[in-house]
Amino acid sequence: MRGMDFVTLNNGVRMPRLGFGVWRVPGGEAAAAVSAALEAGYRSVDTAKLYRNEEGVGRAIRASGVPREELFVTTKLWNDDHGYDAALRAFDASMDRLGLDYLDLYLIHWPVPAQDRYVETWKALERLHAEGRVRAVGVSNFTVETLDRLLGEAGVVPAVNQIELHPMLPQAELRRYHAERGIVTEAWSPLGQGRGLLAEPVLAKLAAKHGRSPAQVVLRWHLQLGNVVIPKSVTPSRIAENIDVFGFALDPEDMAALAALDTGTRLGPDPATFNRLG
Prior knowledge:
Elements: E1 6-8, E2 14-16, E3 20-21, H1 27-40, E4 44-46, H2 54-63, E5 72-77, H3 84-98, E6 103-108, H4 118-130, E7 134-140, H5 144-153, E8 160-164, H6 172-181, E9 184-188, H7 201-210, H8 214-225, E10 228-229, H9 236-243, H10 252-259
Parallel strand pairs: 3-4, 4-5, 5-6, 6-7, 7-8, 8-9, 9-10
Antiparallel strand pairs: 1-2
Helix pairs in contact: 1-2, 1-9, 2-3, 3-4, 7-8
């Protein structure tokens, strides 16, 4: 992976700092999108049961010719699969859909606080890790409060917390919390879901300064903050553009200009109250 940066997780597993996300990629388009990403040089792919495209992701991986040990594959347990036994069944079902022998990272997708079963669910993930069926386990959309509760009862510290994170919601407090406990911060919706962020004048200015696109500037910002990032696209040219972010750097003034975009704007659900099942 020429030019790719890696982060070493708290159990020694190496994870690419930039991966390919497939949220909202229809099942019928997932194989083509992942194939384009692998051709462009991505070696990390992030899916989930909820996305209903695990089959297409697995098909592209198996057909790619890329050795399995060079790939880093993540999927996630959905909210209606919380509980020890249900989580084990959900993992088996995801692996069947992916058609893989092992997983690199398995995440609890949301804590679902009203259900209050995420600690029990975590125990199942610890078992999957101990059995070698998944190389690392983590969470997604956990807050300081839910992480505190989990860490108080967990035998394994989550390797990753995947959270909504972009210049309008930089999550400084949560990133500090992660850093103090050896948890990697992974950003979903890193480009703000195409809802105005990339049209900000400061991004046009920085893109012109560096001869890059606004999206590349934002992805570079993530990497320099220390985040793992998983941009999504189904357009081959944009897929290739998004991984081409290792040949330039933002200076302190650039980072400060991007920091000024922080409005605390959350584009997705609030993890403290999101309890959707099904």
